[in-house]
Amino acid sequence: MPQLNAGARLQGTRTTTVLLGLAQTLAWASSYYLPAILAGAIGQDLGMSRATVFGAFSVALLVAAATGPFAGRLIDRHGGRPVLVASNLVFAAGLGALGLAQQPLQVFGAWAVMGLAMGSGLYEAAFATAVRLHGAQARRTITGITLFAGFASTVGWPLTAWLESSLGWRGACLVWAGLHLLVGLPLNAMLPAAARAPAAPAEAASPASPPAALAPPQQRAAALLLAFVFAVTWFISTAMAAHLPQLLLAAGAGMAAAVGTAALVGPAQVAGRLIEFAFLARAHPLLSARLATLGHPLGVLCIVLIGSPAAAAFAVLHGLGNGILTIAIGTLPLLLFGARGYGERQGLLMVPARIVQAGAPFLFGLAVQRLGAGALWLSAGLGLAACLALGRLARELRR
Description:
Mean pLDDT: 85
Keywords: Cell membrane, Membrane, Transmembrane, Transmembrane helix
CATH class of the largest domain: Mainly Alpha
Number of domains: 2
CATH topology of the largest domain: Growth Hormone, Chain: A
Organism: Pseudorhodoferax soli
GO cellular component, one term: plasma membrane
Oligomer: single chain
Protein name: Putative MFS family arabinose efflux permease
Radius of gyration: 21 Å
Distance between the termini: 39 Å
Number of helices: 17
Low-confidence stretches: 199-211
Pfam family, one: MFS_1
């Protein structure tokens, strides 16, 4: 009987991983990765600069920051299925509104609606759903979800470009809206229903209890350190996504080499997640995260010491670290605080990350404009600061 129960649990986690992984691939491809392809066409059609279109996207990120804790609280209480299904409806509404927009204000309004969906339908909500279903055993599910969604840009960018060339940017938005209704919604609707939230006294005996019993002051300190680490790593990731080709050009690479090298980041992220899944799954998540925060600074060191010939090494090291850190965002709060209240706590921890993410392209762009490739010293310093913060957290746990 125990073997049957273990087999059923394994099958359940695999089902959750596949359903959430596919749904997350669609959600990321149709939101976070959409402006890179459509911003120029939207701006040209509606008389907006490309920067203004990205400003509307920044509004979506700020709305997502405000929405995340509320969505997480709903997942804690009712499970992830109803929240994620609702996010597909909101995604469809936002994409439909964007496809029908006739003036800049309507673009901003459409992206604000998209922000509601992003705050309740991207990684934080998916991770909270996995934890709500599988408790402390959700680490491998979280890793599996990121493995699927790691191909969101690989799938999303070419498909969006093809749709834009075939149907125009409006048609591309409407097709993505339809995919949320025809594909994303059924995937999320097939998720298992979550059990009723347990009463508070059951926490002590629950397998979801935190492995490390932290006193309240330690919990507050750990939460602040994690919020800082998540904000720093998302700032670096977003800044590199927006400016990596320009940085490589400033470091001496040619245009073709810069673009080709930047394209290595996506596969490297997936490779990092595979490494975490295959080799680091039994390691402490803090060890994985600390190693991952060193990826970007080591890549910068390669650029500084060798120059443009090390551009590929930089891109791969940055991508490897970023891929593993995406998993750490889901697993570290589970390790430190347990499964109870995970969704709301995860939403709160990610508020600073969403805010700095919204400003990262503009702020780091100023640094690139003034310092050129020297701006990498700034991002490397931030990566080292994140590593030091995780080291401080590890010392607190050892106590």
